């Protein structure tokens, strides 16, 4: 298990790879740059260019662990991470209709370097999206999004089938397949409201004053030019 992971990482480094979902699995290797994906496959919404798979992995109906390696991406020491769920198989490629159901609040990762790094992050108990109800046997897809500092995002998915939390089908979660390595820091994200929707725009009226002022200055300047022209004529 561990050696196969290391091999994945070695080949990943060759193509300046991005994110890898290490638990509970992923759709497959999309760390590919070729003629079809000249910018790299993993930038493609919703699942990094990978179609829905049928070799689904199992995940608890009560939510469970997700582990990933966010650092296989050159040039970005920090990134925002989103984890979403898409329900069912009614979508365009027999996957979900959409991936619009957040499972965690987005957070920032603080990597050690701008170069690729192998660190792993483990979210041991990711809940289902708010108000979601699922039963054993339902199919869904977990989407991991890594938003780079320039605003483009990398996508990885894993197709799951829900099982009861005590199901023997579940792969055991342990310190080898789900751990936080010390090279990745974490930051919470906050927003600060500068102007709520619908508020009177005082800033604009200030700008209008400034604009009126410079317009007056322009008028004051005109006659000088005209005077100059008159002198020239
Ligand atoms: C499904 O099969 C693909 C191709 O063999 C493999 O890369 C991927 O890891 C498998 N996914 C799971 C969840 O086992
Ligand atoms: C690029 O790689 C993808 C994924 O392996 C593959 O489906 C596609 O056919 C490849 N394109 C070319 C031009 O080789
Ligand atoms: C879930 O996915 C599996 C594998 O693709 C499929 O065999 C099964 O019919 C699906 N179940 C439902 C309820 O759609
Ligand atoms: C997303 O997909 C679900 C089905 O999984 C559907 O009920 C919902 O309306 C969709 N939402 C959007 C915004 O398309
Ligand atoms: C890893 O770090 C995240 C973010 O701080 C935290 O939520 C999670 O519980 C940690 N995982 C483990 C296994 O301690
Ligand atoms: C969850 O359900 C409650 C009650 O129906 C509703 O008020 C709330 O808006 C829902 N939340 C989301 C995120 O859909
Ligand atoms: C906007 O201007 C009005 C009237 O001058 C004032 O009462 C209000 O406090 C101002 N709002 C802000 C956010 O500055």
Automatic annotation (TrEMBL):
Range of residues in the leader sequence: 1-17
TM region positions: 211-232
GO cellular component: plasma membrane; side of membrane
Domain Copper acquisition factor BIM1-like, chain residue ranges per copy: 16-183
Topology in membrane: Lipid-anchor; GPI-anchor
PANTHER family noted in UniProt: COPPER ACQUISITION FACTOR BIM1-LIKE DOMAIN-CONTAINING PROTEIN, HYPHAL ANASTAMOSIS-7 PROTEIN
Protein name: Copper acquisition factor BIM1-like domain-containing protein
Organism of provenance: Apodospora peruviana
